[in-house]
Design goal:
D-amino Acid Aminotransferase, Chain A, domain 1; about 525 residues; seven-stranded antiparallel sheet; DNA ligase i, domain 1; alpha+beta
Amino acid sequence: MQAFAKLFQRLDEQRGTKAKVTAMADYFASASAADGAWAVYFLSGRRLKRLIGPVQLRQWLAQASGLPLWLIEQTHEHVGDLAETIALVLTEQPTQANPTAAIGLAEWVEANILPLRLLEDDQRRERVMQAWQTLSSEERFLYTKLLTGALRIGVSQTLVERALAKASHQPQPVIAHRLMGHWNPDADFYQGLFAERSGQEDASRPFPFFLAHPLETPTHQTLGPIEDWQIEWKWDGIRAQLVRRADAIYLWSRGEALINQQFPEIIEAAHALPINTIIDGEILAWDEGVLPFAQLQRRLGRKRIDAKLLSEVPTRLLTYDLLEQDAIDIRTQPLTQRRTRLNQLLDTLNTPIMISPQVFADSWSELAKQHAESRSRGVEGFMLKAKASHYGTGRPRGPWWKWKISPLTLDAILVYAQPGHGRRANLYTDYSFAIRDGETLVPIAKAYSGLTDAEIRRLDRWIRRHTQERFGPVRAVEPVQVFELAFEGITPSRRHKSGLALRFPRIARWREDLGPNDADTLAQAQALLS
């Protein structure tokens, strides 16, 4: 625990990616297999489910510190982060020579954290307060983050892969592949990360998804001849990999969730594929053409899809790429060869698994005319893939580009704000916006990104001075600040007061030149539906 707390602090202090990779590699090289497995689990963004709520933790902190509960609550509101509040209030060093210093991360999690779920409240309180007394300030912070399921570490999956590759002397693509799919944070898993490559890799595991960089407008000067590029529509669906093995079929989302149950018709159709095949593609709601993403969302998160929903929201897997054929990894073959193999594979099949159509144009200017038709076709623009490109890992610049259409926009009024998380826990960074419906305001979206750090700090000061009401951590503010919101789509919604839902809303700019009467109306937002 102590070593991982030091790593956490070291990562928090470092800003350069090279230094972060070195810090993690040093830890992986010296950690036990059990500790290393849990470290990879947390560093790669996985989290424990919340074991104890903030209300109980504030009550226990009041008892442990001897301070009144109202002062603890006000301190938490001022600091913005409960774990940091606990670390600051309990300033004492361990009451004895720290007996937990030699206890590793795995033992802390498996013996001192996970078992709390099975205990009564009094027993949990006793265990937690005892842990607070034996841990250092940095360890208390980390321990509380683990209890609340709120641990966030400022490193990307790619940096974790680089650190493991450095520590294990394995190629980064191999590490990336081994981190995909479902795995348990145990010693066997960690030792498998360091093992030499063999034919015994987990058969269910997908490959890391290859991603594209955004591009404004392609030209001959930026990308060269158009003939060097494979062009496809950019669909608004769920990126997925279909893994066909001898005894099973696995459908993985890009978020590494197994989604077989949500799309049974695709699983059924996959039985027609040859065994030992992996295909990359996009799941779409499709009924004589692509349906809005909101329809596809009706299939997500369900444990069972009934006949009615199957009929109302039919889906298909529109395939892009063939990654493995006859148990051979073909990702290093040029895209043109992989595309030919994919065409041959799907040519005789009449199933919901179909190949994504290509788009052809004689010049970039001609392609731009087709690009203007994207929204009417229900797509987001184009994918541009170099015909000679391999299927790599991560998001390198050059091989693949996404040329998206300009987003839709609305001018909306800030009505609510609440604190952010992590280093922004003491700033108001999560905002709710409304539009005008006659004399009233109806909420339409929340947005968390788009402002600069300087704008966030300035807006935070304004929010504190212009708060009209408080609802726990949420502040209702004077409705005068107007912001331009950008979003990818808009659909009817019975769950929102405005009757509308925005897809991927974010702040495009702070419209200080506009007043609340200049904000858009509900009628204007509804007009975007057509």
